[in-house]
Amino acid sequence: MTIERSNPEGLHATPGYHHVTRVQADTMVFLAGQCPLQPSGELAPGGLEGQTAQVITNILTALKAVGATPDQIVRTVIYVASSERDDLSTVWTQLNESALGPAFTTASTLLGVAQLGFPGQLVEVDVTAAL
């Protein structure tokens, strides 16, 4: 498996992610959007920070189940239920500073959205990995 990440000349500089991720792999893994739900099915406490921490835990658990690591993630889409740029930055920073951090050097999209699927849900991350 090979993963090549690049920022082609002529595109703007990024805050850590790459514009292009080229993958040659035997197996692709697509995670359902990981929500801030605890194993009990209840929403994680602690507001945006607590929910983001739970999403990180859930992604790491799902990756481990298929023998994948954060550096094998080739695409992420991050959804934050907020129109406040500071909230998006808070989530981006927390994700990058976590054990999941290597995942966000790849092709990534960060979106502020009106609402997510569960009442009170503030964050969700969609992940694709290559093995």
TrEMBL record:
InterPro entries: RutC-like_sf (IPR035959), YjgF/YER057c/UK114 (IPR006175)
Membrane spanning stretches: none
Pfam families listed in its UniProt record: Ribonuc_L-PSP
Family that this chain belongs to: Belongs to the RutC family.
Protein name according to UniProt: Enamine deaminase RidA (YjgF/YER057c/UK114 family)
Species this protein is from: Kribbella karoonensis
